[in-house]
Amino acid sequence: MSEAPPPPYEAGPNPPIIYSPSSSAVPPPSQLSVERRPTPFSSTLSSTTTPRYTASSSASSDLGPSVFSSPGDGLDASASWSKTGDVDVWIDLKAKLPDLEEDLAPSVKEYAVDPSGDVPILNIVMFVVGNSEEIQIYIALALELIIRHSHRVRIATQEAHKGAIERAKQSLGGKVGKDGRALEYKLDIFDIYDSPTSSLAEWCRRPDTLEATFRSFYKSTYWPEPISGSSFAADLIVACPSAVAHIHVAELLGLPLHIVSATPWSPTTAFSQPYTTIRRSNAEARLSAYLSYALIENLMWKSLGKTISDFRQLTLGLPPSDKVIGPGLLDRLKIPFTYCWSSLVASRPADWKEHIDVTGFIYPNPEPYRPDDQLLLFLKEGPPPIYVKLEFDHRLEEGEVPLSIIIGGLKKLGSRVIVAGKGATDFKAPDVFVIPDGEGLPLNYLLANARVAAICHDGGTYVTSMALKNAVPSIIIRTNASSRFWGDRVYEVAAGSRPIPIDELSVEHIASALDDIYSPKVREAVRSLSNHLRSENGTDEVARSIHRHLPLLNMRCDVIPSRAALWYDAERSLRLSGVAAAVLAREGKLSFQQLELNRPREYPVSLADSDPIIGGVQAFFLAITKSIVKVTHMFSNPAPQRVVDIASQQPILVRQIQNPKGGWTWQYERDTRPRMPITDMKSGMREAGQEAWTGMKDGMKGVVMEPLRGLQRAGPIGGILGLVQGSVGLATHSLAGAIRAVELGVEGGLSEARNRSGSGTTTQIYPSSPADVLRSSRAKTSMEEAKSLTEEEKRQILEEYKRAAKIPERVEARKRRQERISQGLDVAAVGHVQGGIALGVTERPDLVSAKSGSNSGVGKWWKGKGKGKGKEKVEATLSPSISISGSSHQHQKEIEQNEKEQEAQAEVERSQRGGFSGGQ
User: Fold this and answer.
1) pTM for the complete prediction?
2) Kind and range of the H or E element at 88?
3) Residue in 759, 800, 808 with CA at minimum distance from that of residue 906
4) What's the sign of the alpha-carbon dihedral 910, 912, 915, 916?
5) Cβ neighbours for 726, distance < 8 A, ≥ 6 positions apart
6) Across all residues in the chain, what is the average pLDDT?
7) Each residue of 368-407: b (16+ CB within 10 Å) or e?
8) Which residues contact 902 (CB under 8 A, 6 or more apart)?
9) GO MF terms on file (predicted)?
10) What pLDDT, in 10s, does the model give residues 62-95?
């Protein structure tokens, strides 16, 4: 068998690959002749065969969706899908650059987080695409979120995983959450109408078939439970990174988004993107690694961009995206990431900042398993075998099947074998135990208690983590680029043999791998790692990480702080939980149509920052492609320090309204020119005049400067063209200034309303628009939750709402607090907002005992104001305890007395001012 040349990056440090026109490495796709452009997934070429090519370059748009090419004055880079579903990358810098610093990324100041605060019970939807092993970590995480935190979790994934999710649901039978509800009803699956073997690479091959899948992800946030019909409305999206609809749905609905992954997706200089193979590069190692993340993002956008834009525009009513702002969204917006592996195996890169956590492996709970007698007999009758678990269809150049080489080599070297996977039945022999394809054998069982001596696999995260936990050495067959990441990590920590590229399989390599795994060094390393990993609780840490990055300051009910806020009462600057809003609606105090949907976080997808540090890897890639001069400051020592403040990304206005053509118009408004704050109509008109003058001034400047620039560029003709351009600029700048002046005047009016509401972001969401889709589901869940309340509990909710809405000091305190949140400032400076009642806090006996703390009536304010309007009969069933926040009955009396004094003082102040004032 002829031996193929080794891939560019072996285990360990990644040296730069020097570009040479005479190199035998695969040329970039832009240099391939039209007749021999690469065809993904079906090419007859091996990954190391050099096809014919010419020196002429092609534009990316001419190469089809499977190839991305970006020639520029600073960088000429290309990426293409390989036949294995990985991405091949070529990098050609036009000038020599030093390497990037390890810690170049900007710090991240997250928005509205409250890491030490309690987390209310949430409805969580998970967007997951993957195989039967990849789904396991998300099922285990879902069970953790349900059992320990009483969240409700819906997993939107392929129907092929229904059996695994149903078994997990059965394990919840008979268990009750802290809210008193049965846990088995808190887990369900939502079918996304996708194939069982779907992957991101498969999606990129058939983007036209993804409409139903993307639409299903969107529907999973609000669609009723298919079997029981119970309402569901998401409060949080947790997703795997490859489920690319996540950020677009989160943008539409204003929901928090958290990405959980077992392989790296966040740009770093520490290692290249695991799904890429850098075929050729003349850049230094860290710079090459960093650019690989931009190239795979741009290639994915080249393949899926039109489908994503159509989904945004036609289904979600969002503006279409483009090749500039589409790639690298998760990085640019600093979406929270949690990587579920142990830092003992893969350390956290220095350029992963505050929004990224590395927590530990997620290990699914072992399922009950009774092995058949034949397997037990095979395990007992000889030394521990080697378990071969490989799932791939691949033949080498000579037509040999890799599985036959592996098993033949192991047998020749005297090892007993257990084999599972496609084609396993072809290898029956006395020293080989075959597990037929489709018959599950839990890894928890086979890898435990030293039943096997080692496991031979393809480097998947799940199998790798299980081997490490059970102190079983790994022989990793590197089938593609993604398996290189874990293959290298395992070898670096001496938990297995050197990874074997599949095209280099031989008996000699198998023999070398056996020498490695039986060595004292590897045996001691796996025992030590196993002891450490068993002391970690990665599943719990992932759940904590999700909670830690939530914008909790925008997610709690102001009346019942232990409940999630679903609604926003703009008139009174109140966030309301479903049960609080339902009680108020039944009493006729407000209606669900009057309330805004609570939107804890906004995502200004269409507002890109061109700064190569602040704007993330895509901004860096665009800048260095255009000119190396634009990024030279990033290579200085020390590198410039930056901070990304998520609060500054939050818009002052979010609007989705119907346009004359019947579609939807989506608009973000965010300050772009530093100016005095607009707090009322007067300040708005002041800034309107300033903006009009600025527009006129910019236009006049263009009349002078454009002809001069034209003269410098192209002589007299350029000067004439510059004069024309400057004259047009005078008109357009003046018109833009006038339009902006009108907008600022309107903003002044909006600020008057915001002063009354205290809202950091004003929303104008058209009824029945795509962004309003949660309203019906939230209203139904709100009414369902309220059915379990007693009359006493409803009375206390009404009383607390009265205090929260009518005491000016409390309204002002909430507005000051919200203002600081929207500015990214510490809310501790304004103290905690008073009030709030505790509902369902069964862990605190002191709160439970205070249930009857207040015996006063609802109060004069409620008399004759809608009492009984729309009121429905409520069953006085047993409900979770409800109490006024405090440690005793006496403490509650003190709170009530203090609030009465504050209300009396406020009444005097209002009479002196001549009316209520809620301004800031």
Assistant:
1) 0.79
2) strand 87-93
3) 808
4) negative
5) 702, 703, 704, 705, 706, 707
6) 79
7) eeeeeeebeebbeeeebbbbbbbbbebebeeeebbbebbb
8) 807, 809
9) UDP-glycosyltransferase activity
10) 567 789 999 999 999 999 998 877 899 999 999 9
Angle, helix 889-913 to helix 808-822, in steps of 10 degrees: 90
Is the pLDDT assigned to residue 916 strictly greater than 70?
A: no
Nearest to 541 by CA among 363, 349, 366: 363
Predicted pLDDT of residue 328: 95
Closest alpha carbon to 27 in 63, 68, 55: 55
Q: Crossing angle for the helix pair 520-535 and 461-469, nearest 10 degrees? A: 100
Q: Tell me which of 639 and 915 has the higher pLDDT.
A: 639
679: left (phi over 0), alpha (psi -120 to 50) or beta: alpha
CA dist 808 and 819 (Å) reads 16
User: Is the distance from CB of 254 to CB of 604 less than 8 angstroms?
Assistant: no
**Six-digit token string for 883:** 């109490």
Higher pLDDT, 205 or 738: 205
DSSP letter, residue 739 = H
CB-based contact 838:560 (threshold 8 Å): yes
Residue 314 has what DSSP assignment?
Answer: I
Max CA distance (Å), the chain = 98
Number of other CB atoms surrounding residue 148 within 10 Å: 14
447: three-class secondary structure by DSSP: coil
In this predicted structure, which of 321-330, 628-637, 640-649, 888-897 has the lowest mean pLDDT? 888-897
Question: How many angstroms separate the CA atoms of 663 and 710, rounded?
Answer: 42
Cα-Cα-Cα-Cα dihedral sign, residues 589, 590, 591, 592:
negative
Structure tokens at 696: 């006129």
**25/223: higher pLDDT:** 223
State the Cα–Cα distance between residues 95 and 287, nearest whole angstrom. Answer: 13
Q: Is 306 left (phi over 0), alpha (psi -120 to 50) or beta?
A: alpha
Q: Is pLDDT larger for residue 728 or for residue 574?
A: 574
Task: Give the SS3 label for residue 435.
Answer: strand
The rounded distance, in Å, linking the Cα atoms of 415 and 406 is: 11
- CB neighbourhood size of 798 (10 A): 20
Tokens of 418: 């257990």
- By three-state DSSP, how is residue 93 classified? strand
Q: Which helix (H) or strand (E) holds 107?
A: strand 107-109
Closest CA to 69 of 331, 323, 270, 332: 323
Q: Name the nearest CA neighbour of 617 among 110, 128, 82, 105.
A: 105
Alpha carbon distance 748, 738 (integer Å)? 15
CB 80 within 8 A of CB 88: yes
| 858 in Cβ contact with 589 (< 8 Å) | no
Q: Assign 176 to helix, strand or coil.
A: strand
**How far is 495 from 498, CA to CA, in rounded Å?**
10
Question: What domains are defined for the chain?
Answer: 373-534 (3.40.50.2000), 556-600+767-913 (no CATH), 651-759 (no CATH)
Helices (H), 340-431: 373-380, 402-412
Answer left, alpha or beta for residue 392, where phi above 0 means left and psi between -120 and 50 means alpha.
beta
Per-residue pLDDT tens over the stretch 155-213 = 999 999 999 999 999 999 999 998 889 999 999 999 999 988 777 878 888 888 899 99
pLDDT band at 690 (very low <50, low <70, confident <90, very high): low
Tell me: cis bond preceding 612? Omega within 30 of 0 counts: no
Q: How is 843-911 classified by DSSP, letter by letter?
A: T-HHHHTTTT-----S-GGGTTSSTTTT-----------EEESSSSHHHHHHHHHHHHHHHHHHHHHHH
Where is mean pLDDT largest: 510-519, 825-834, 886-895? 510-519
